[in-house]
Amino acid sequence: MEPILENNRKWVEKQRAADPQFFERLADGQKPRYLFIGCSDSRVPASAITGTGPGEMFVHRNIANMVVHTDFNLLSVLQYAVEVLGVQDIMVVGHYGCGGVAAAATNKQYGLIDGWLTNIRDVIRVHETEFLRIKDESQRLRRLVELNVIEQVRNLAKTNIIQNAWKTPNPPRLHGLVYDIKEGLLKDLEVEGARLSELDHIYSTEMAAHAEEVLEEQVGQEVTENRPSLKASSEQAKEDRKAEKSESKQLSKVD
């Protein structure tokens, strides 16, 4: 660990020399503009490839830059970034040569990660026709990297976190990027603004409102249908109380 600690000391000295108040300002809090959702690959350092510094970018990374709706780690990061930090741009950043994407394109088992890779195989299933038409394997995998990024941006748009944010005056923008390790360049797939309008009837949060309306109608109908029995029960209770009072009077006369 000594090289790590030594590099840290050198970095601190460099930062203080350029800006004596640098760390004091960082300690006051963060207000990042960007949320970076990227791959865990060590060759894709978020701040380095985007030219951003400390405090400018909130970062979440996992195998193959996935947005999985049962991943509470990702969802917690997303909600905090959007609702608390108020990020303006959310980027899903994949990279060519991704090992997770390549593994998902095979029929091999790898162990614990197989469940995670199923999410990428779902991308293949959705785009199977296009995927199988590409004969060159390397080009097929490059395209799968791009398709995976596109689908993860769409998965972001399906979350109620993003859909609710889109109803606010200053909603975040969604972006899909791919990093080319050989060239060091980012490629914009131009999928920002994917509102899934063609799938609103399935994924939109308006569905929840509709479900509530249906539930209210059902509950109202059940109450209406049960009113006769409720009335009968009430009448029976009155008769029982009258009988008890009459019996009590008769016992008093006997005494």
Short description:
Its cofactor is Zn(2+). With 255 residues, the protein is an alpha/beta fold.
Please count the helical segments. Answer: 11
Q: Helical content, roughly?
A: 55-70%
Number of strands: 5
Give the full name of the CATH homologous superfamily: Carbonic anhydrase
Largest sheet: 5 strands, mixed
Cofactor: Zn(2+)
EC number: 4.2.1.1
Binding site for Zn(2+): 39, 41, 95, 98
Family: Belongs to the beta-class carbonic anhydrase family.
What are its keywords?
single chain; 255 residues; alpha/beta; Beta-carbonic Anhydrase, Chain A; 11 helices; extended
Map the helices and strands.
Layout (H helix, E strand, L loop, with lengths): L1 H17 L3 H6 L6 E6 L6 H5 L6 E6 L9 H14 L3 E7 L3 H6 L9 H13 L1 H6 L3 H22 L1 H6 L7 E8 L4 E4 L11 H4 L2 H49 L1
Parallel strand pairs: 1-2, 1-3, 3-4
Antiparallel strand pairs: 4-5
Explain this structure to me?
With 255 residues, this protein is an alpha/beta fold. It has a single domain (29-211), classed as 3-Layer(aba) Sandwich (Beta-carbonic Anhydrase, Chain A), CATH 3.40.1050. 58% of the residues lie in helices and 12% in strands. It has eleven helices and five strands. It has helices at 2-18, 22-27, 46-50, 72-85, 99-104, 114-126, 128-133, 137-158, 160-165, 200-203, 206-254; strands at 34-39, 57-62, 89-95, 173-180, 185-188. Strands 2-1-3-4-5 form a five-stranded mixed beta sheet. Strand 1 (34-39), helix 3 and strand 2 (57-62) form a beta-alpha-beta unit. The termini are far apart. 21% of the residues are buried. The model has no long low-confidence stretch (mean pLDDT 87). Keywords: Lyase, Metal-binding, Zinc. Zn(2+) binds at residues 39, 41, 95, 98.
